[in-house]
Design brief:
The protein is mostly helical. It contains 3 helices and 2 strands; from the N terminus they run H-E-H-E-H. Helix content is 42%, strand content 4%. It has a two-stranded parallel ribbon. Helix 1 runs parallel beside helix 2. The longest helix has 22 residues. The chain is elongated and about 60 Å long.
Length: 99
């Protein structure tokens, strides 16, 4: 999980704190950049309450799928891995090793 710290800038700009979700060094902006630069599929998990809805919207607007439950994300990761392995089996080639 992501710890509650203002250094991550997980909230939109507001009068009662110094966070700013739109800053280039915010966790949402950095995750979106990592996902864009990666050749592998990426998702985010924001397993938190409505306070973090703006961060979820920011991630989704940047093209990053977001799960609101870690359990659901892991369940779907399992489905993805299983189906990927089946596809390789059908093609009769070895699946690539995770890196």
């Amino acid at each position: 999980g992501v710890p509650l710290t203002s250094m991550l800038n997980t909230l939109p700009c507001g009068p009662n704190h110094r966070e700013d979700l739109e800053r280039g060094d915010s966790v949402a902006q950095r995750l979106a950049e990592l996902a864009r630069d990666s050749s592998k599929p990426c998702v985010a998990v924001v397993d938190s309450g409505a306070l973090y809805d703006p961060m979820v919207r920011t991630l989704e607007e940047q093209g990053l799928p977001v799960f609101r439950s870690a359990d659901r994300a892991l369940m779907l990761l399992n489905v993805y891995c299983r189906e990927n392995a089946r596809a390789y089996d059908r093609m009769k080639i070895p699946a690539p090793m995770a890196s």
